[in-house]
Structure formats: structure tokens, C-alpha cells
């Protein structure tokens, strides 16, 4: 990548000078994922890494809620976001006030929030979950009924795998809600032998057609363990690009959908962020303390 090389070198030099680490989500572009990231992973892996990091500075290459989670777990560290506008349609779909109203409407029903939410929302919930532990988190509460917000599709996929009654919210991911079951069946017919690997933010008619459904890290593990000849990753486009080197021999069939928020993070913005030490992510300490309880409760579950 000749055009990227000067950026990669400058970023890696500055990281050492600043005692900084780069936490990058699996949806980052390959030059970020392979060129400058210290830790890559799904939301749960990144949250766990943030909780144990020895660095003074964390540069969060992902979306805003991920940087907030790092700040919640590290109130004394500097958390930088290369582009503050990198949001998430799920995080934008619900507010702390909405959760308070839900609690009034459903007294006594525990509330689980997907990690793809603002600190404000986490502060109002009982426990967090990610796509890799949602069923386990729901069942850990020992309640017959649980509110799982804000992703209606994650909730529907969890409901299929538990006897706990799941109530939810009207949120959806702009990337995963666009896939359809009919599209999956067309791929099955036109690409013989293809393995379909879906994210649980997809509608249930999509996951019904999948050979495996799981978090982005779960998808990578499944590919490594099963080495299919052809695979369709029903998720964000950078996944297949990044996994290609870890799963040689797999022919990745498109389609994929781009996440407009994840794609706001670029090498030049990461460099600028480290040069000027901005933009710093802050969370109101009172909100952070309450949100931390929900995140730490999740992390303390073994998985
Ligand atoms: P994962 O936790 O599976 O990486 O999902 C995060 C995300 O934003 C998926 O759209
Ligand atoms: Fe949010 Fe969907 Fe983008 Fe993930 S892929 S950050 S859930 S909009």
C-alpha cells in the first residue's frame, strides 16, 4: 500500500511517543486493521481490552459508542475519536428518557441494553450485552421476561434461542436491516456450496437461511474452524477484506453493505487525532459511574 505507508509509519511512531494504543473494530478498512491497529476485535473484545489497557491514550477506531465504552471503563485515560461524527443508527434510536419510560411501563422487568447505545442509555439499564453474549446475558438475569433494547432484530434472534420472553424497541442497524431472506435464497441457488454467515443484527428471515449466526469475532472463528470453499458474510464490507488473510482459500461471495459511520475513520484522521490529541471523548462522571455498573456486570460474566 504505497499511498498509505507514510501515514502508517507516522501513526505508529506517534503511538510510541504518546504511549497510545489503537483499538480497531473488525469493520475498519484493511490499512487500519492490518497497518496501525494494536488490538482488533468485536465489541466485546474491544471493551475487555479497554478495561485492562495499560496505555495512557486509547485511539478508538470504530464508532462513538465504542469510544464512550472505553471512557466509561477508563475515566482517567485520554480516549480519542478520529471523527466524532462516527455514530450508529442503533445508538441514535433510543435515549435515556426512553429507557426510563420503558421501566415505568414494564415495572420489575429487567432491561438489557445492547452495547451499541449511548452512555446515557447504559446508565438507565441493568446490564449491557453484545452480539456475542446476548443470550447468555438475558438468561443470567433469571427473569421470565426481559427487555432487550434497542435492536428489534437482535432481540428477535435472541428470542429464537431462549425460553425467556423478550420485549424490545424499534431500533435497527442501517447495514444489516437491508439484507433479505430472498436474497440469501438466491445466493444459495446461484452459488452451490456457499456457506452463509450472518450477524444477529440481520432480520430473522436472513438468519433462518444462515449456516452460522454470530458476532463479527464469532464469524471469523467460524471461518477459521470450518474453512469453507465459498462464504457469504452477511455484514459490513470490510469484514471479508480483513478476514481474507486469516482464512486463506475462502472465496468470499459478495454482497455486503457499507457502514457509513465506520467508514468515516481514515488513516489521515487517525494521524491528525494523534498529532493534536483530539477529539477527546468525555462522559459525565455521574452517568459514567452508572453506565460502568452495566458494562462491568456484563464483562464479569464468564465468556
Ligand atoms: P460486533 O460486536 O459483532 O462486532 O458488532 C458491532 C457492530 O456494530 C455490528 O454492526
Ligand atoms: Fe451501528 Fe450498524 Fe454501523 Fe454497527 S454496522 S456501527 S450497528 S450502523
UniProtKB/TrEMBL annotation:
How the cofactor binds, per note? Binds 1 [4Fe-4S] cluster per subunit.
UniProt keyword list: 4Fe-4S, Cytoplasm, Iron, Iron-sulfur, Metal-binding, Pyridine nucleotide biosynthesis, Transferase
The record's EC number reads 2.5.1.72
Which compartments is it annotated to reside in? Cytoplasm
One function term, GO molecular function aspect: quinolinate synthetase A activity
What biological-process GO terms show up in the record?
'de novo' NAD+ biosynthetic process from L-aspartate
Tagged with keyword Metal-binding: yes
- Where along the chain is iminosuccinate bound? 25, 43, 114-116, 131, 199-201, 216
Obligatory cofactor(s): [4Fe-4S] cluster
Q: In which pathway does it act?
A: Cofactor biosynthesis; NAD(+) biosynthesis; quinolinate from iminoaspartate: step 1/1
Q: Give any Gene Ontology cellular component.
A: cytosol
**Which residues are noted in the entry as [4Fe-4S] cluster-binding?**
88, 173, 259
Name of the protein described by the UniProt record: Quinolinate synthase
User: What high-level taxonomic lineage is stated for the organism?
Assistant: Bacteria, Pseudomonadati, Pseudomonadota, Alphaproteobacteria, Hyphomicrobiales
Which residues of the complete protein appear here? 57 to 359 of 359
Amino acid at each position: 500500500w504505497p499511498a498509505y505507508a507514510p501515514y502508517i509509519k507516522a501513526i505508529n511512531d506517534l503511538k510510541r511517543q504518546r504511549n497510545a494504543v489503537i483499538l480497531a473494530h473488525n469493520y475498519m478498512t484493511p490499512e487500519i486493521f492490518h497497518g496501525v491497529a494494536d488490538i482488533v476485535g468485536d465489541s466485546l473484545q474491544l471493551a475487555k481490552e479497554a478495561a485492562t489497557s495499560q496505555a495512557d491514550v486509547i485511539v478508538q477506531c470504530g464508532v462513538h459508542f465504542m469510544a464512550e465504552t472505553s471512557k466509561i471503563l477508563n475515566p482517567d485515560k485520554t480516549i480519542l475519536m478520529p471523527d466524532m461524527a462516527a455514530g450508529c443508527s442503533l445508538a441514535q434510536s433510543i435515549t435515556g428518557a426512553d429507557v426510563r419510560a420503558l421501566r415505568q411501563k414494564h415495572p420489575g422487568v429487567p432491561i438489557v441494553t445492547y452495547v451499541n447505545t449511548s452512555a446515557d442509555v447504559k446508565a438507565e439499564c441493568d446490564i449491557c450485552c453484545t452480539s456475542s453474549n446476548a443470550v447468555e446475558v438475558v438468561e443470567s438475569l433469571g427473569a421470565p421476561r426481559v427487555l432487550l433494547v434497542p435492536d428489534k432484530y437482535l432481540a428477535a434472534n435472541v428470542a429464537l434461542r431462549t425460553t425467556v420472553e423478550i420485549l424490545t424497541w424499534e431500533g435497527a442497524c442501517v447495514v444489516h436491516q437491508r439484507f433479505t431472506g430472498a436474497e440469501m435464497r438466491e445466493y444459495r441457488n446461484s452459488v452451490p456450496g456457499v456457506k452463509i454467515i450472518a450477524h444477529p443484527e440481520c432480520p430473522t428471515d436472513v438468519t433462518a437461511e444462515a449456516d452460522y449466526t454470530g458476532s463479527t469475532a464469532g464469524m471469523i472463528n467460524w471461518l477459521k474452524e470450518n474453512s469453507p470453499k465459498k462464504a457469504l458474510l452477511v455484514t459490513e464490507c470490510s469484514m471479508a477484506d480483513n478476514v481474507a488473510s486469516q482464512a486463506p482459500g475462502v472465496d468470499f461471495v459478495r454482497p455486503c453493505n457499507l457502514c457509513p459511520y465506520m467508514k468515516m475513520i481514515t488513516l489521515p484522521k487517525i494521524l491528525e487525532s494523534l498529532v493534536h490529541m483530539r477529539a477527546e471523548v468525555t462522559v459525565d462522571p455521574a452517568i459514567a459511574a452508572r453506565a460502568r455498573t452495566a458494562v462491568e456486570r456484563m464483562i464479569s460474566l464468564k465468556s
